[in-house]
TrEMBL record:
Gene3D superfamilies: alpha/beta hydrolase, Cysteine proteinases
TM region(s), chain numbering: none
Recorded superkingdom: Eukaryota
Key words of the record: Hydrolase
GO molecular function: hydrolase activity
Similarity-based family: Belongs to the AB hydrolase superfamily. Epoxide hydrolase family.
Protein name, UniProt field: AB hydrolase-1 domain-containing protein
Residue span(s) of domain AB hydrolase-1: 115-230
Length: 399
Protein backbone atom coordinates (compact mmCIF):
# COMPACT_ATOMS: atom_id res chain seq x y z
CA UNK A 1 0.00 0.00 0.00
CA UNK A 2 1.50 3.34 -1.04
CA UNK A 3 0.84 6.76 0.37
CA UNK A 4 -0.13 9.53 -2.03
CA UNK A 5 -0.36 13.26 -1.51
CA UNK A 6 -3.67 14.23 -3.16
CA UNK A 7 -4.61 17.67 -4.41
CA UNK A 8 -7.99 16.91 -5.86
CA UNK A 9 -9.70 18.80 -8.66
CA UNK A 10 -13.01 16.98 -8.81
CA UNK A 11 -14.68 14.04 -7.12
CA UNK A 12 -16.15 11.23 -9.18
CA UNK A 13 -17.80 9.20 -6.50
CA UNK A 14 -17.97 9.40 -2.72
CA UNK A 15 -19.82 6.70 -0.85
CA UNK A 16 -23.26 6.24 -2.38
CA UNK A 17 -23.51 9.65 -4.02
CA UNK A 18 -21.77 11.62 -6.72
CA UNK A 19 -20.47 15.06 -5.75
CA UNK A 20 -18.62 17.25 -8.21
CA UNK A 21 -16.69 20.35 -7.32
CA UNK A 22 -13.38 21.31 -5.77
CA UNK A 23 -14.72 22.51 -2.41
CA UNK A 24 -16.21 19.15 -1.40
CA UNK A 25 -13.13 17.11 -2.08
CA UNK A 26 -10.79 19.76 -0.68
CA UNK A 27 -12.70 19.69 2.57
CA UNK A 28 -12.39 15.93 2.76
CA UNK A 29 -8.66 15.96 2.11
CA UNK A 30 -8.24 18.93 4.45
CA UNK A 31 -9.38 16.78 7.34
CA UNK A 32 -8.32 13.25 6.51
CA UNK A 33 -5.36 11.17 5.48
CA UNK A 34 -6.06 8.59 2.79
CA UNK A 35 -4.18 5.52 1.63
CA UNK A 36 -4.11 4.21 -1.91
CA UNK A 37 -5.74 0.80 -2.26
CA UNK A 38 -6.26 0.48 -5.99
CA UNK A 39 -5.79 1.97 -9.44
CA UNK A 40 -7.76 1.90 -12.67
CA UNK A 41 -8.15 3.83 -15.91
CA UNK A 42 -11.47 4.73 -17.50
CA UNK A 43 -12.24 4.47 -21.23
CA UNK A 44 -11.57 8.18 -21.76
CA UNK A 45 -8.10 7.81 -20.24
CA UNK A 46 -8.96 9.34 -16.87
CA UNK A 47 -6.74 7.85 -14.18
CA UNK A 48 -8.80 6.76 -11.17
CA UNK A 49 -7.18 6.03 -7.82
CA UNK A 50 -9.03 4.17 -5.11
CA UNK A 51 -8.37 5.42 -1.59
CA UNK A 52 -9.10 4.16 1.88
CA UNK A 53 -10.21 6.63 4.54
CA UNK A 54 -8.00 6.20 7.60
CA UNK A 55 -9.39 8.75 9.99
CA UNK A 56 -13.15 8.67 10.35
CA UNK A 57 -15.62 11.54 9.89
CA UNK A 58 -15.97 13.75 6.86
CA UNK A 59 -18.42 16.27 5.38
CA UNK A 60 -20.41 16.54 8.62
CA UNK A 61 -20.47 20.32 8.46
CA UNK A 62 -21.71 20.28 4.87
CA UNK A 63 -24.61 17.93 5.55
CA UNK A 64 -23.27 14.95 3.66
CA UNK A 65 -23.45 12.80 6.79
CA UNK A 66 -20.77 10.65 8.33
CA UNK A 67 -18.47 8.39 6.39
CA UNK A 68 -17.68 5.14 8.10
CA UNK A 69 -14.11 4.34 9.04
CA UNK A 70 -12.37 2.32 6.29
CA UNK A 71 -14.87 3.50 3.67
CA UNK A 72 -13.46 3.03 0.18
CA UNK A 73 -13.76 6.05 -2.08
CA UNK A 74 -12.78 6.56 -5.71
CA UNK A 75 -11.50 9.83 -7.03
CA UNK A 76 -10.73 11.19 -10.48
CA UNK A 77 -7.21 12.51 -10.26
CA UNK A 78 -5.02 14.46 -12.70
CA UNK A 79 -1.93 12.81 -14.11
CA UNK A 80 1.48 13.29 -12.60
CA UNK A 81 0.80 11.92 -9.12
CA UNK A 82 3.92 11.30 -7.05
CA UNK A 83 4.09 8.04 -5.13
CA UNK A 84 6.28 7.89 -2.03
CA UNK A 85 6.67 4.29 -0.92
CA UNK A 86 9.31 4.74 1.75
CA UNK A 87 7.18 6.57 4.30
CA UNK A 88 4.44 3.93 4.49
CA UNK A 89 6.46 1.67 6.73
CA UNK A 90 7.11 4.57 9.12
CA UNK A 91 3.42 5.28 9.61
CA UNK A 92 3.67 9.02 8.95
CA UNK A 93 0.27 10.36 7.89
CA UNK A 94 -0.49 13.31 5.63
CA UNK A 95 -3.33 15.79 5.36
CA UNK A 96 -4.17 19.21 3.96
CA UNK A 97 -5.35 22.24 5.92
CA UNK A 98 -7.00 25.09 4.00
CA UNK A 99 -5.38 28.40 5.01
CA UNK A 100 -6.38 31.63 3.21
CA UNK A 101 -7.33 29.67 0.11
CA UNK A 102 -4.14 27.60 0.00
CA UNK A 103 -3.82 23.92 0.84
CA UNK A 104 -1.10 23.57 3.46
CA UNK A 105 0.30 20.07 3.78
CA UNK A 106 0.89 18.65 7.25
CA UNK A 107 2.85 15.47 8.00
CA UNK A 108 2.08 13.90 11.37
CA UNK A 109 2.60 10.81 13.47
CA UNK A 110 1.67 9.84 17.01
CA UNK A 111 -1.47 10.18 19.06
CA UNK A 112 -0.23 11.72 22.30
CA UNK A 113 -1.84 14.75 23.89
CA UNK A 114 1.48 16.64 23.90
CA UNK A 115 2.38 18.01 20.47
CA UNK A 116 5.85 18.68 19.06
CA UNK A 117 5.87 20.95 16.01
CA UNK A 118 8.93 21.02 13.75
CA UNK A 119 9.94 23.83 11.40
CA UNK A 120 12.74 23.53 8.86
CA UNK A 121 15.00 25.75 6.74
CA UNK A 122 16.08 25.98 3.10
CA UNK A 123 15.99 23.83 0.98
CA UNK A 124 14.25 21.33 3.21
CA UNK A 125 10.66 20.22 3.71
CA UNK A 126 8.83 18.07 6.25
CA UNK A 127 11.00 15.09 5.28
CA UNK A 128 14.13 16.57 6.87
CA UNK A 129 12.63 15.99 10.34
CA UNK A 130 11.67 12.35 9.66
CA UNK A 131 14.05 10.89 12.26
CA UNK A 132 12.88 13.25 14.99
CA UNK A 133 9.20 12.70 14.17
CA UNK A 134 9.58 8.97 14.72
CA UNK A 135 11.66 9.43 17.88
CA UNK A 136 9.17 11.67 19.68
CA UNK A 137 6.19 9.62 18.47
CA UNK A 138 7.80 6.50 19.94
CA UNK A 139 7.90 8.32 23.30
CA UNK A 140 4.19 9.08 23.21
CA UNK A 141 4.14 12.51 21.57
CA UNK A 142 2.25 13.69 18.52
CA UNK A 143 4.69 15.07 15.95
CA UNK A 144 3.57 17.44 13.19
CA UNK A 145 5.48 19.21 10.42
CA UNK A 146 3.65 21.68 8.18
CA UNK A 147 5.12 22.49 4.79
CA UNK A 148 5.28 26.24 4.19
CA UNK A 149 3.19 27.65 1.37
CA UNK A 150 5.09 26.99 -1.85
CA UNK A 151 7.31 24.39 -0.17
CA UNK A 152 7.17 20.62 -0.48
CA UNK A 153 3.63 19.34 -0.80
CA UNK A 154 1.85 22.61 0.07
CA UNK A 155 0.15 24.72 -2.57
CA UNK A 156 2.00 27.57 -4.25
CA UNK A 157 0.88 31.12 -3.43
CA UNK A 158 -0.12 33.23 -6.43
CA UNK A 159 2.39 35.90 -5.43
CA UNK A 160 5.44 34.20 -3.89
CA UNK A 161 7.22 37.54 -3.63
CA UNK A 162 4.75 38.60 -0.92
CA UNK A 163 5.63 35.68 1.36
CA UNK A 164 7.00 36.94 4.68
CA UNK A 165 8.01 35.55 8.05
CA UNK A 166 4.90 37.02 9.64
CA UNK A 167 2.67 35.44 7.01
CA UNK A 168 4.17 32.04 7.78
CA UNK A 169 3.65 32.63 11.50
CA UNK A 170 0.00 33.38 10.77
CA UNK A 171 -0.23 30.23 8.63
CA UNK A 172 1.09 28.19 11.54
CA UNK A 173 -1.45 29.71 13.91
CA UNK A 174 -4.26 28.89 11.46
CA UNK A 175 -3.06 25.30 11.00
CA UNK A 176 -2.96 24.67 14.74
CA UNK A 177 -6.41 26.18 15.27
CA UNK A 178 -7.81 24.09 12.42
CA UNK A 179 -6.33 20.95 13.97
CA UNK A 180 -7.67 21.81 17.42
CA UNK A 181 -4.18 22.11 18.93
CA UNK A 182 -3.82 24.66 21.74
CA UNK A 183 -0.26 23.95 22.95
CA UNK A 184 2.94 22.90 21.17
CA UNK A 185 6.63 22.43 21.84
CA UNK A 186 8.51 24.08 18.97
CA UNK A 187 11.63 22.61 17.34
CA UNK A 188 13.21 24.59 14.51
CA UNK A 189 16.31 25.03 12.37
CA UNK A 190 17.53 27.27 9.55
CA UNK A 191 15.17 30.14 8.79
CA UNK A 192 12.49 28.12 10.60
CA UNK A 193 14.17 29.35 13.79
CA UNK A 194 13.02 32.88 13.05
CA UNK A 195 9.46 31.72 12.38
CA UNK A 196 9.42 29.69 15.61
CA UNK A 197 10.93 32.60 17.57
CA UNK A 198 8.27 34.97 16.27
CA UNK A 199 5.54 32.47 17.05
CA UNK A 200 6.84 31.99 20.61
CA UNK A 201 6.63 35.76 21.17
CA UNK A 202 3.32 36.46 19.46
CA UNK A 203 1.56 33.35 20.79
CA UNK A 204 3.35 32.61 24.05
CA UNK A 205 0.19 31.10 25.53
CA UNK A 206 0.39 28.31 22.92
CA UNK A 207 4.06 27.39 23.46
CA UNK A 208 5.37 24.94 26.07
CA UNK A 209 8.97 25.49 25.03
CA UNK A 210 11.29 25.97 22.08
CA UNK A 211 14.37 24.15 20.78
CA UNK A 212 16.44 25.75 18.04
CA UNK A 213 19.37 24.44 16.05
CA UNK A 214 21.37 27.63 15.99
CA UNK A 215 20.62 30.83 17.91
CA UNK A 216 17.00 31.98 18.25
CA UNK A 217 16.49 35.28 16.45
CA UNK A 218 13.95 37.51 14.74
CA UNK A 219 14.52 39.49 11.54
CA UNK A 220 14.91 43.24 11.36
CA UNK A 221 15.71 43.72 15.07
CA UNK A 222 18.71 43.87 17.39
CA UNK A 223 18.19 40.13 17.78
CA UNK A 224 18.95 39.37 14.14
CA UNK A 225 22.55 38.14 13.81
CA UNK A 226 22.47 37.99 9.99
CA UNK A 227 23.83 41.44 9.30
CA UNK A 228 26.73 42.89 7.31
CA UNK A 229 27.05 39.90 5.01
CA UNK A 230 29.90 39.97 2.51
CA UNK A 231 28.74 40.74 -1.05
CA UNK A 232 30.60 37.56 -2.05
CA UNK A 233 28.53 35.39 0.31
CA UNK A 234 26.04 33.08 -1.40
CA UNK A 235 23.15 34.67 0.53
CA UNK A 236 24.06 38.11 -0.81
CA UNK A 237 24.17 36.76 -4.35
CA UNK A 238 20.86 34.93 -4.01
CA UNK A 239 19.13 38.06 -2.73
CA UNK A 240 19.51 39.41 -6.26
CA UNK A 241 16.48 37.90 -8.09
CA UNK A 242 18.22 37.74 -11.46
CA UNK A 243 21.41 36.17 -10.10
CA UNK A 244 19.37 33.64 -8.15
CA UNK A 245 17.31 32.82 -11.25
CA UNK A 246 20.44 32.36 -13.36
CA UNK A 247 22.02 30.09 -10.78
CA UNK A 248 18.99 27.92 -10.08
CA UNK A 249 17.90 27.53 -13.70
CA UNK A 250 21.15 25.98 -14.86
CA UNK A 251 20.63 22.56 -13.24
CA UNK A 252 17.84 20.10 -12.57
CA UNK A 253 16.29 20.32 -9.07
CA UNK A 254 17.87 17.13 -7.72
CA UNK A 255 21.33 18.33 -8.75
CA UNK A 256 20.66 21.70 -7.11
CA UNK A 257 19.60 20.10 -3.81
CA UNK A 258 22.70 17.88 -3.88
CA UNK A 259 24.95 20.90 -4.33
CA UNK A 260 23.19 22.87 -1.60
CA UNK A 261 23.60 19.98 0.84
CA UNK A 262 27.31 19.94 0.03
CA UNK A 263 27.56 23.73 0.22
CA UNK A 264 25.77 24.00 3.55
CA UNK A 265 27.64 21.05 5.08
CA UNK A 266 30.96 22.87 4.86
CA UNK A 267 32.25 24.61 7.97
CA UNK A 268 33.42 27.70 6.10
CA UNK A 269 31.36 30.31 4.29
CA UNK A 270 31.83 29.84 0.54
CA UNK A 271 32.51 33.07 -1.35
CA UNK A 272 32.46 33.72 -5.07
CA UNK A 273 34.20 36.19 -7.31
CA UNK A 274 32.33 38.46 -9.70
CA UNK A 275 30.55 36.48 -12.37
CA UNK A 276 30.99 33.14 -10.62
CA UNK A 277 28.12 30.80 -9.89
CA UNK A 278 28.07 29.42 -6.33
CA UNK A 279 26.75 26.05 -7.45
CA UNK A 280 29.33 25.67 -10.24
CA UNK A 281 32.13 25.69 -7.66
CA UNK A 282 30.80 22.65 -5.77
CA UNK A 283 32.39 19.22 -6.22
CA UNK A 284 29.58 16.62 -6.32
CA UNK A 285 31.93 13.93 -4.98
CA UNK A 286 31.86 15.69 -1.59
CA UNK A 287 28.21 14.83 -0.96
CA UNK A 288 27.84 13.70 2.69
CA UNK A 289 27.35 9.97 3.22
CA UNK A 290 24.30 10.50 5.44
CA UNK A 291 22.24 11.97 2.57
CA UNK A 292 21.27 9.19 0.15
CA UNK A 293 20.28 9.18 -3.50
CA UNK A 294 16.73 8.33 -2.42
CA UNK A 295 16.71 11.37 -0.14
CA UNK A 296 17.93 13.64 -2.92
CA UNK A 297 15.37 12.17 -5.32
CA UNK A 298 12.62 12.91 -2.81
CA UNK A 299 13.62 16.56 -2.49
CA UNK A 300 14.34 16.95 -6.20
CA UNK A 301 11.00 15.52 -7.29
CA UNK A 302 9.04 18.02 -5.23
CA UNK A 303 11.18 20.95 -6.36
CA UNK A 304 10.40 19.97 -9.94
CA UNK A 305 6.81 20.81 -9.02
CA UNK A 306 7.35 24.02 -7.07
CA UNK A 307 10.58 25.48 -8.35
CA UNK A 308 12.73 27.54 -5.99
CA UNK A 309 11.05 30.97 -6.17
CA UNK A 310 9.12 30.77 -2.89
CA UNK A 311 11.77 28.59 -1.28
CA UNK A 312 14.37 31.32 -1.81
CA UNK A 313 12.12 34.24 -0.93
CA UNK A 314 11.69 33.59 2.79
CA UNK A 315 15.23 32.88 4.01
CA UNK A 316 16.44 35.91 2.11
CA UNK A 317 14.00 38.21 3.91
CA UNK A 318 16.53 38.49 6.72
CA UNK A 319 16.10 42.26 6.87
CA UNK A 320 12.31 42.11 7.03
CA UNK A 321 11.11 44.79 9.44
CA UNK A 322 9.22 42.97 12.18
CA UNK A 323 7.73 45.34 14.74
CA UNK A 324 7.05 43.76 18.12
CA UNK A 325 6.13 45.41 21.40
CA UNK A 326 7.61 42.47 23.31
CA UNK A 327 10.96 41.25 22.03
CA UNK A 328 11.71 38.42 24.42
CA UNK A 329 11.00 34.69 24.44
CA UNK A 330 9.71 33.75 27.88
CA UNK A 331 9.33 29.98 27.61
CA UNK A 332 11.92 27.26 28.35
CA UNK A 333 14.44 27.13 25.50
CA UNK A 334 17.32 24.98 24.29
CA UNK A 335 19.83 26.15 21.70
CA UNK A 336 21.63 23.31 19.91
CA UNK A 337 24.93 24.47 18.45
CA UNK A 338 26.36 22.36 15.61
CA UNK A 339 30.09 23.00 15.84
CA UNK A 340 30.77 22.77 12.10
CA UNK A 341 27.71 24.70 10.93
CA UNK A 342 29.02 27.33 8.53
CA UNK A 343 26.40 29.79 9.82
CA UNK A 344 28.54 30.19 12.94
CA UNK A 345 31.06 32.01 10.72
CA UNK A 346 28.56 34.64 9.60
CA UNK A 347 29.42 38.17 10.79
CA UNK A 348 27.93 38.84 14.21
CA UNK A 349 26.92 35.25 15.07
CA UNK A 350 29.87 34.62 17.40
CA UNK A 351 29.33 37.86 19.31
CA UNK A 352 25.59 37.28 19.40
CA UNK A 353 26.16 33.99 21.24
CA UNK A 354 29.37 34.60 23.22
CA UNK A 355 28.51 38.11 24.41
CA UNK A 356 25.17 36.79 25.66
CA UNK A 357 23.01 39.05 23.51
CA UNK A 358 21.00 35.93 22.81
CA UNK A 359 20.35 35.55 26.57
CA UNK A 360 18.67 38.95 26.57
CA UNK A 361 16.37 37.68 23.86
CA UNK A 362 15.59 34.35 25.56
CA UNK A 363 15.04 34.54 29.32
CA UNK A 364 15.42 30.80 30.08
CA UNK A 365 18.03 29.45 27.67
CA UNK A 366 20.16 26.31 27.85
CA UNK A 367 22.75 25.20 25.29
CA UNK A 368 23.75 21.82 23.86
CA UNK A 369 26.97 21.64 21.84
CA UNK A 370 27.47 18.99 19.13
CA UNK A 371 31.07 19.56 17.98
CA UNK A 372 30.87 17.44 14.80
CA UNK A 373 27.47 18.70 13.73
CA UNK A 374 26.98 20.53 10.43
CA UNK A 375 24.09 22.65 9.17
CA UNK A 376 21.84 19.60 8.65
CA UNK A 377 22.73 18.05 12.01
CA UNK A 378 19.25 16.57 12.52
CA UNK A 379 19.82 14.38 9.46
CA UNK A 380 23.56 13.92 10.01
CA UNK A 381 23.42 13.00 13.73
CA UNK A 382 19.78 12.10 14.34
CA UNK A 383 20.40 10.12 17.54
CA UNK A 384 22.20 13.05 19.18
CA UNK A 385 19.49 15.51 18.22
CA UNK A 386 16.74 13.10 19.29
CA UNK A 387 18.39 12.67 22.69
CA UNK A 388 18.67 16.44 23.17
CA UNK A 389 14.99 16.95 22.32
CA UNK A 390 13.74 14.14 24.56
CA UNK A 391 15.96 15.24 27.46
CA UNK A 392 14.37 18.69 27.40
CA UNK A 393 10.91 17.16 27.22
CA UNK A 394 11.68 15.01 30.25
CA UNK A 395 13.12 17.93 32.21
CA UNK A 396 9.96 19.94 31.73
CA UNK A 397 7.75 17.01 32.71
CA UNK A 398 6.39 16.45 29.22
CA UNK A 399 7.52 12.81 29.12
Amino acid sequence: MSLYYPSFKESREIGQGVYKGKSSIDRYIGEHAVLLTGFDKEEDGTEVFEFKNTSGLAFGAQGFGKLKRDLIISISYPKGVLKVDKIDKDGIGHKYIMVRGLQIHVAEIGAGSSVVLFYYGFPEMWYSWRYQMLAVANKGFRAIVPDYQGYGVSEMPQEPEKTTFLRLVNDLFAVLRNMGISKVFLVAKGFGVQIASLFAIRHQEMVNGIITIGPPSIPGTQFSPFQNLSPKCYLSRWKDPQKAKDEFNCLDPKAIVRKIYILFSQDEIPETCDGENNLDLIDDSLCPSWITEDDLTFYGTWYERTGFSTALKVPLSLDENVKLVNQQIRVPALMIIAGKDHLLKFPGIHDYIQCERVNKFVSDLEMKYLPEGTHFVQEQLPDDVNEAILTVMSKHSLL
